[in-house]
Specification:
This protein is α+β, with helices and mostly antiparallel strands. The protein has helices spanning 2-20, 25-40, 42-56, 69-77, 87-100, 117-132, 135-148, 202-209, 214-227, 284-295, 359-384, 400-409, 440-457, 475-488, 490-514, 571-590, 596-608, 614-646; strands at 104-110, 151-158, 166-171, 177-179, 193-200, 245-246, 249-270, 273-277, 305-320, 331-334, 344-347, 350-352, 355-357, 390-392, 429-431, 522-526, 529-535, 537-540, 546-549, 560-566. A hairpin with a 2-residue loop joins strand 16 and strand 17.
Length: 726
């Protein structure tokens, strides 16, 4: 297997270095642990490569597409065409678009306190960081990567806009990140160690670690002189190489591990438990002011303050480059990002006991089957239809030149007719083999895969896009399929919301450290808002003392809760407005207009309708016309039945038409009687008194911004017999 072969080669080289004593203890520790973790995950890497090639589906001739490399070599040796009907990419992008169409909106709330200006400021600067560092692009790539196999992004500090840095996210290339084999949960806080690999060019390495080893300068001079080279392209999984080099680029391994660093903190005993005093408060006056603001002057006692040892979860980063040096570590320091776990976020469509599972894993077998069946179909047409090898009789043609032209142009529909010997009775050109009967079951199975099986496993059933699977399908059945499809997406949506939740929790934790550096005031701007937010602003209080407004250092000791909600003005919220219109139209017909609830809802509709787009307003008006027409039809049928019951037609013998035991006579031509039979009246019943229809209730005035429905003639009542339900 390719990944295992690469790992075994590296482990053999490492063993030689250990035997010679040429590798330092620290480099050996990082290098050996990373290789053993990669050996454990070799199935993981091979499946990732296969899934990404299945998703991209390009360059099958180079072994980088959906076809296995062995199949490509065999088909090319037989001069067969390699067809790729990439249904996987379309399915993944449709599902990714449906997940990304509902923007999320986080809210930061203190756990032990009411919402305050600090959490409101945190949300504002989050929008600024999101805009500056292009979070949306990274999130979309994460969704697609999670549906293909697994997406991994790194929490970074971006100093492009501000020397003090902004919090951003960057994607990790496939197979460049792998976690501890003992990590079996879906919670990133349970991950204690992981590795991230990068291939860096000599100029980048000299810029970062030029003073660590003279080899960096030599490689840089060779690279800048023009004698450098790049490695071979490996398709959708870059740097899928054997060894620690890719051309002049060298593999750099970063190890992230969590350690418990002992430290001492001061605590105060309260009725709610022990409260830790922030370590940044060095002077007694600062501690007293903080305790008074946090607990109140009567909420703590000076003799209840004590000091005890505690631990902080610190992430350490160690960097090595085995190809350059095995004697020294390039970097070993605390990470710039400290969020209680390694600074990475991982998302996959599903994760079962440490194994990522994605949509491509469900559809790739059928994808290979579709490609194979279509390629076989084309090969059969080539051999038995209008192409492929032919049998030619050279003696049948008028000249050797004509026979040679027949060999070259026998498949050319625009060629001139071939000249044969006069009186020749045979067949100059004929198929090499006789046609064989086609396996129709194979093509029926292909249709079954594409039309039935594929939509189920890819979560892109026709009902999701409003398409019906059959002409005779009722609307109720279609709605049921839509509900089932939405329930099938629950796992994907739930895990995506968990990913967002962990991401914004880590953002809040890192903000308390990144934006409280030495309490330096910082301003944040947004292009779509005139408001600016200033952090760590020095202000003068009413008593003349100095204070800090929006002190971000307070986030370190604040238990902050993140709530993920749907953003305003999303497709779901606009669809809810259309649903309100539908319900209002029904209520407007069935409930008297004098009802207070109808007046309230009509006023709400007046304000809501202006927020809808023109297309949605047209849909709402069309929906109202259909509902009104349906209710009018039902009302006409009931009125006709009441008229027949009040005015029965007399029959010869004194019995009303439709009486028990008497046949009903046909109505004379041109009469206004409806085709439905009137209701039967028992002979012993009292004479029916004609009822005077009640006057129509006064109509409520229609709001000025809602156009009345156009007048149309009343439809004819439906016939009594037959009829299908739509």
């Amino acid at each position: 297997m390719p990944v295992m072969a690469q790992i075994q080669t590296s482990m053999d080289e490492l063993q030689k270095l250990r035997d010679k004593g040429e590798i330092s203890r620290e480099v050996n520790r990082v290098y050996e642990r990373s290789l053993r973790a990669k050996a454990f995950h070799q199935r993981y890497f091979d499946r990732s490569i296969e899934n990404w090639h299945m998703y991209l589906g390009l360059d099958a001739e180079y072994g980088l597409g959906q076809w296995p490399a062995e199949a490509v070599r065999f088909m090319l040796s037989k001069r067969r065409h390699i067809f790729t009907y990439n249904l996987a990419k379309v399915s993944i992008e449709r599902l990714a678009s449906s997940l990304a169409q509902t923007p999320h909106d986080p809210d930061f709330l203190p756990v032990d306190d009411e919402p305050n200006t600090l959490t409101e400021a945190l949300k504002k600067i989050m929008y600024c960081d999101k805009e500056r560092c292009s979070w949306d692009n990274t999130f979309l790539e994460m969704i697609i990567a999670g549906l293909v196999f697994q997406g991994v992004m790194r929490i970074d500090i971006d100093d492009t806009w501000d020397p003090l840095g902004n919090i951003g996210f960057s994607m990790c290339l496939p197979n460049s990140w792998y976690g501890d084999p003992m990590w079996k949960t879906t919670n990133m806080k349970d991950l204690r160690i992981c590795w991230h690999e990068q291939f860096l060019t000599p100029d980048t390495m000299y810029e970062k670690w030029g003073d660590r080893n003279p080899r960096f300068k030599l490689d840089l001079e060779q690279f800048m002189s023009g004698s450098g080279s790049y490695g071979m392209p490996t398709g959708a999984v870059p740097f899928d190489v054997q060894g620690d080099s890719w051309g002049n680029a060298q593999r750099v391994i970063h190890e992230y591990r969590m350690i418990r660093k002992p430290t001492k903190y001061e605590f105060v005993i309260t009725d709610k438990g022990d409260v830790r005093i922030p370590k940044k408060l060095e002077y007694p006056d600062d501690k007293i002011n903080w305790l008074n603001q946090k607990l109140g002057q009567s909420g703590w006692q000076p003799d209840q303050v004590f000091e005890k040892p505690d631990y902080d979860n610190i992430c350490m980063k160690t960097t090595i480059c085995p190809r350059i040096s095995v004697q020294e570590v390039l970097d070993e320091e605390e990470c710039e990002v400290q969020v209680g776990h390694p600074p990475f976020e991982v998302y996959s469509y599903d994760r079962v006991n440490g194994e990522p599972y994605a949509i491509v894993d469900s559809v790739k077998d059928m994808q290979v089957n579709v490609n194979y069946m279509m390629s076989m179909k084309q090969f059969r047409l080539q051999m038995e239809g209008f192409g492929g090898a032919k049998q030619i009789d050279p003696g049948a043609f008028a000249s050797p030149e004509e026979a040679e032209r027949a060999k070259k142009q026998h498949n050319d529909a625009g060629a001139e007719p071939f000249e044969v010997i006069p009186g020749y009775q045979g067949k100059a050109i004929q198929d090499l083999s006789s046609p064989s009967p086609a396996a129709s079951e194979a093509f029926q199975e292909l249709e079954n895969i594409v039309d039935r099986m594929w939509p189920l496993v890819s979560r892109n059933v026709p009902a999701m896009s409003g398409r019906s699977e059959g002409k005779s399908e009722s609307g109720r059945l279609h709605d049921s399929k839509v509900n089932q499809a939405e329930m099938g997406l629950f796992i994907a949506i739930w895990r995506l919301r968990n990913f967002w939740h962990e991401t914004y929790v880590d953002y809040a934790v890192q903000s308390g450290q990144q934006y409280s550096l030495m309490s330096i005031p910082r301003q944040f701007y947004r292009h779509d808002s005139e408001d600016t937010i200033t952090l760590n602003e020095r202000v003068t209080l009413e008593d003349g003392s100095q204070g800090i407004k929006n002190d971000m250092s307070a986030l370190k000791d604040m238990r902050c809760m993140v709530i993920i909600s749907e953003k305003q003005n999303t497709p779901t919220s606009r669809a809810a407005d259309i649903s309100v219109l539908n319900n209002l139209i029904k209520a407007r017909v069935e409930v008297p207009p004098s009802s207070p609830s109808i007046v309230f809802l009509l006023n709400t509709l007046t304000t809501k309708i202006d927020q809808l787009s023109p297309d949605e307003k047209m849909k709402a008006e069309a929906l109202g016309e259909m509902e009104l027409e349906a209710v009018t039809n039902d009302l006409m049928i009931k009125l006709n039945q009441q008229k027949q019951a009040m005015n029965p037609q007399p029959q010869p013998g004194g019995m009303p038409s439709g009486a028990p035991g008497m046949p009903q006579e046909a109505a004379p031509a041109g009469s206004a009687m409806p085709s439905q039979p009137p209701q039967a009246v028992p002979p012993s019943a009292a004479p029916v008194q004609p009822k005077i229809p009640a006057p129509k209730p006064p109509q409520a005035p229609m709001p000025a911004n809602i156009k009345p429905a156009p007048q149309r003639p009343l439809p004819k009542p439906p016939q009594a017999a037959g009829g299908s339900h739509g």
